[in-house]
Write a structure and sequence with these properties.
CATH topology of the largest domain in chain B: MetI-like fold
CATH architecture of the largest domain in chain B: Orthogonal Bundle
Number of domains of chain B: 2
Strand content of chain C: under 5%
CATH class of the largest domain in chain C: Mainly Alpha
Oligomer: heterotrimer
Shape of chain B: globular
Number of domains of chain C: 2
Helix content of chain C: over 70%
Order of helices and strands of chain C: HHHHHHHHHHHHHH
Radius of gyration of chain B: 23 Å
CATH superfamily of the largest domain in chain C: MetI-like
Distance between the termini of chain C: 18 Å
CATH class of the largest domain in chain B: Mainly Alpha
Number of helices of chain C: 14
Chains: A alpha/beta (348), B mainly alpha (284), C mainly alpha (270)
Number of helices of chain B: 12
Number of strands of chain B: 0
Largest sheet of chain B: none
CATH superfamily of the largest domain in chain B: MetI-like
Chain lengths: 348, 284, 270
């Protein structure tokens, strides 16, 4: 290729580059029947929603509905979905966000500490939560090994898959549920830890980086049971994956926090209120979340399996701050110690 | 090729040296200046930020982060697997390069074009595909998922092009006359390869292997799906660093990263030296 | 070798092809098989959604900025390494390879430590309304980082090989440095340059880890093709994920086809 040819190419390249620069403002919809663009409200505000990955399916339906309401008219949306910890750190590092919806409270606390979210964020929604779920066991279609409860996970030969709690914050819910259920709701921490120890050193062979990857591993044939959120199992089923799920006799309520940031546009609060309204709550229910709105929950009760001994909360266990440090501190946490043991026993 | 005369030869070094001194002033300095500036802006300063962060919490903390049992295990595993992968790719890569250059068969161009795909495919797809093929639901009946073999396979995939692409150009340029002379003198093929071809290929093989090693040390995306991330067993150092970040231990992550960087730098310096030594040999 | 026995030649060929088959051909074949499993129309729909189009153009835009810049750097660095003599040259040589060794998360971390909030330049940038990370410039910076060494590493050996006699001759005849470069050096290194560009492009379009950290993953704005692949995987749209990957592979193929042509011409004219 001579220098002359290169020189002739340059204007072509420049034109192409410019075209791309313009064309990059395509759209955000990832479906064939792209309805109204979800970015760029005409002359109105744009809200930036930063969330963890799972509720994307719900927001894809809820946001267009919101835009049809008087509060939502002319409001454009920019959305970003990813791992809860990643998203939280991104907002801390400067990613613009008006509303953050994350999968565990410490990820919001990080933003409070950074001065981006006010200390009383929980007063906005119902204690800062718009949709709940519970920890469940995902099993093969038909549940061939008849896994029903926490003790069944420790039966000989049963292999359990769970994401690694140190690379996926959301995975902490799974282990906390076991800890609480077998530890008399936090009153017998030793018993709870003993359970986790047996589980992780003898039955957990694989710990994937994230919940989605753990599910993929499970679907790929590994393991007999996957610790997952109930709503993730339901969403997977809706998307055609062949799994069943059971809710153990005692399970932990997964409360995914949502907050409005300090510099958010006023429309953000309107959106948050909309998420608590009946149509939005129903959408959450359809995708497997347990709505916080009591009436919508009652109306959709048949979707959800009820654990025999009830559902407990993080507050009953002692709260996130206490347990996150006690169990999940990477140096001194009990689960960190158990992980070390687990590593030793499986290393060849 | 438009340039005819080779660089080697008894008269070349002397006149080249004189000419180099004559021409060095404008073009050479510009090249050095601009490229150093670019390298600093893009690579060195950001990496300096990581190093600074690693030492922010003091030397003691850096030492602790890196000598924790999990970190040591992860580092050791990374090192061993990367060396193994580099060695395997060096051997097979040379073989593949040989076949691609010296052999002739239908579809050779297509095979040649495929070699660089590991660069273009996003690593998560590589991971997904390898999992589908060689994991629990493998159609071939091979299940190596979540084992050290899996990590090695994924790394072999992403470092495949390095040695092949380093060796190919050298093989192409290799002077056949020496081989033919040796053959006419009665040397066996094995001897020819061992004494004539291989020494000439050595620098290229080493260079490619060094790059493969470095990439293996740093690689992250493709291995995670397959490795299952079991601490002590199949956890590589880059995943360990990721876990530190997730647990808000940025200093720890930076510390491990600095160690990995230093490691690779040492290896790279060594390999480049050998390469230079080998090239110098050529001019005799 | 002048006369290799047929048997040994076939054996070598078999081993090489078997190695490639297991590690490369079959996995890539699976990707394409999984892509077209549900028919061509489904694939077409999948790669023409607004999100896919945005991702495609963003990936191209980033590549079209990063690769030429690194090509210029690569040529200059190669000249500095091969023709230059300066203190620290050996260190410079090794440092160029660093991007190969750095884990993608570290690249992202490094960029955030400089341009993110609380970073070395971050607060000043944010106060002045300049968005580097979580915007296209951040993605470009990450891509430049990881594709930095390729052109330099491909051009340097060629420069070393051809020697500087012709350049000396041109200087003797009165050509300026720039003229010498344009008319003597550049044409001579064109194959190494093109080769390096092709490799850089393939690497740039396929990068995931570093971009994932600095892009902010804003749908329709800072989502590259690789990020789109991950998002689709996340949403159980495996077919869509494979379709986007196949698109990446096609882009790579097109660039690779160019390189194969280059290789062929190089072999023919040697």
């Amino acid at each position: 290729m001579s220098v002359d040819k290169l020189r002739k190419l340059t204007p072509v390249l420049l034109v192409v580059a410019t075209a791309f620069a313009v064309g990059a403002c395509g759209g955000a919809e990832d479906t064939k029947d792209a309805a109204a663009g979800s970015s760029g409200g005409d002359g109105g505000k744009t809200l930036s929603l930063v969330a963890f990955s799972t509720p994307q399916v719900v927001y894809d339906e809820v946001i267009p509905e919101f835009e049809k309401t008087p509060e939502g008219e002319g409001v454009g949306f920019k959305t970003s979905y990813g791992g809860s910890g990643d998203q939280s750190r991104a907002v801390e590092a400067g990613l613009k966000a008006d509303i953050v919806h994350l999968s565990l409270e410490p990820d919001v606390t990080r933003l409070v500490d950074a001065g981006l979210v006010s200390g009383n964020w929980q007063s906005e929604a119902k204690d800062g939560v718009i949709a709940d779920s519970v920890v469940a066991f995902a099993v093969r279609a038909g549940n061939p090994k008849n896994i029903q409860d926490w003790d069944d996970l420790l039966k000989p030969g049963v292999e359990v898959v769970t994401p690694n709690p140190f690379s996926s914050g959301g995975a902490k819910w799974n282990l906390l549920a076991g800890y609480g259920a077998k530890g008399d709701l936090g009153k017998k921490p030793e018993a709870g830890l003993d359970y986790l120890r047996s589980l992780m050193t003898e039955h957990v062979k694989v710990q994937d980086k994230s919940a989605r990857e753990a599910l993929q591993t499970f679907l790929g044939g590994q393991g007999d049971v996957l610790l997952a959120y109930e709503n993730e199992a339901i969403t997977a089923q809706k998307k055609g994956e062949e799994i069943d799920y059971v809710v153990p006799s005692s399970s932990l309520l997964i409360e995914t926090p949502i907050a409005v940031t300090n510099d958010a546009a006023p429309e953000a609060k309107a959106f948050l209120q909309y998420l608590l309204s009946e149509p939005a709550q129903t959408k959450f229910a359809e995708w497997g979340y347990r709505p916080v709105d009591k009436q919508v929950y009652e109306a959709n009760k048949s979707r959800f399996k009820q654990p025999a001994d009830g559902i407990f909360t993080m507050a009953e266990l002692g709260g996130w701050e206490k347990l996150n440090t006690e169990l999940f501190d990477p140096e001194d946490g009990s689960v960190a110690a158990i992980e070390e043991e687990a590593g030793v026993s499986t290393a060849s | 090729m438009s340039v005819a005369a080779p660089a080697s030869g008894p008269s070349a070094p002397l006149s080249a040296g004189r000419a180099r001194r004559r021409r060095r002033a404008p073009a050479g300095s510009l090249a050095v200046g601009v490229s150093t500036l670019w390298l600093s802006l893009i690579v060195l300063i950001p990496l300096a930020a990581v190093v600074t962060r690693a030492f922010d919490a003091g030397l003691g903390e850096v030492w602790d982060s890196v000598t924790s049992r999990q970190a040591v295990s992860a580092l050791r595993f990374t090192l061993i697997v990367s060396l193994f992968v580099a060695a395997l790719n060096a051997a097979f890569g040379t073989l593949v390069a040989w076949v691609l250059v010296r052999d002739r068969f239908r579809g050779k161009s297509l095979v040649n074009a495929l070699i660089d795909l590991p660069f273009a495919l996003p690593t998560i797809v590589a991971g997904l595909t390898l999992l589908a093929l060689y994991g629990p639901s493998s159609p071939v009946g091979v299940n190596v998922a979540f084992t050290k073999v899996a990590v090695a396979m994924a790394l072999l995939f992403v470092t495949l092009p390095f040695v092949i692409r380093s060796v190919q150009p050298v093989l192409i340029e290799l002077d056949r006359e020496m081989e033919e002379a040796a053959a006419s003198l009665g040397a066996s093929n094995a001897t020819i390869f061992r004494r004539i071809i291989f020494p000439n290929l050595m620098p290229a093989i080493l260079s490619g292997a060094a790059l493969a090693f470095s990439r293996a040390v740093g690689e992250f995306g493709s291995i995670v799906l397959l490795s299952g991330n079991i601490p002590f067993d199949t956890q590589v150092a880059s995943v360990y660093a990721f876990k530190q970040i997730e647990s808000d231990n940025v200093n720890g992550a930076a510390a491990v990263s600095v160690v990995l960087l230093a490691l690779s730098l040492v290896v790279l310096l060594g390999i480049r030296s050998v390469e230079r030594w080998g090239a110098r040999d050529d001019q005799h | 070798m002048t006369s290799t026995s047929r048997a040994s030649r076939l054996t070598l060929r078999l081993i090489a092809l078997a190695y490639l088959a297991v590690l490369l051909v079959v996995p890539v074949g699976v990707v394409f098989y999984r892509t077209f499993e549900h028919g061509v129309i489904a694939v077409y729909d999948s790669i023409t959604t607004p999100a896919a189009i945005s991702a495609f153009f963003l990936t191209l835009e980033v590549t079209l900025i990063a690769v030429p810049l690194n090509a210029i750097f690569g040529v200059l660095a190669a000249i500095a390494l091969v023709r230059g003599r300066f203190p620290g040259k050996r260190l410079f040589d090794a440092l160029i390879d660093l991007p190969f060794a750095v884990s993608p998360i570290v690249v992202g971390l490094a960029l955030l430590l400089i341009y993110g909030r609380g970073g070395w330049l971050g607060d000043w940038l944010l106060d002045n309304g300049i968005q580097v990370v979580f915007s296209t410039p951040g993605i470009v910076l990450a891509t430049i980082f990881i594709t930095l060494p390729f052109v330099a590493r491909e051009v340097a050996p060629v420069l070393r090989e051809i020697g500087d006699e012709q350049e000396q001759a041109a200087a003797t005849l009165g050509a300026s440095a720039w003229q010498t470069f344009r008319r003597v050096t550049l044409p001579a290194i064109r194959w190494g340059l093109i080769y390096g560009v092709v490799l850089s492009t393939a690497r740039a379009i396929g990068e995931f880890g570093a971009v994932s950290v600095v892009s902010g993953k804003i749908g329709g704005e800072t989502e590259t093709l690789t990020l789109l692949v991950e998002k689709r995987f996340q949403n159980f749209d495996l077919a869509g994920a494979y379709a986007a990957s196949a698109l990446l592979a096609v882009i790579a193929f097109v660039t690779l086809a160019g390189m194969t042509l280059v290789n062929k011409r190089e072999e023919d004219t040697t």
